[in-house]
Amino acid sequence: MDQRQSDSDPAIDKLRQLVDPKKSNVDSTAVRVEAAALVARLKTLNRNANAATRTHKQATTDARQEMDQTHLSLQNLLYEKRHLEREIEKCRQFASIYQDIPLHSVEEFRELAPSEARTHDVLDNPHQLMLNRLSFELAERQRLDLKRKDLILHKEELLKQSRIKSTTVESVKSQIDALMKTATEIQKKVDELVPLPPSAAPTPGSS
Fold this sequence. Notes:
Blueprint: H1 3-6, H2 10-18, H3 28-93, H4 106-112, H5 120-123, H6 126-193
Organism: Scleroderma citrinum Foug A
Family: Belongs to the THOC5 family.
Subcellular location: Nucleus
């Protein structure tokens, strides 16, 4: 018996035995009954084989889909990784405006900044130190800007008062000039109405 026959189902072997010419004297009815049972067995085996094939095909399909999905997820992760690496490199090469802002020196920051902004942990952390220096610089500039605005308002108030005083002085001066002019005119009229006596009149050659 060859390898294919040795691996076959016992039902097939029994069918071969039933059709063996050596057993031609066996009762045909018994042969048909046994053959029908064997055929039913073969049909069952065929259905089971088909079901197993479908199961294996579905399992293969599911495994392939899972592998494809895993591969796609891996590609997405690699794409995201490359994207993040490019963004990180852009951030590293980005020239922020704070690099051009004149800041208080570290020594000035240590002297002027609030104590909570210049602790040992902050001074040992370059990134946090820069953030605190920027915050301190912003607060100082806002404070100085408020002071500048107050000084501008004070200056405008002084200029306003100066203009008012100048206007008052000019008004008083105008009034004094008007009074002096009026007094001069009155004096002339008085002199015209009341002439000086002859003894009071000036003589020629008198000084």
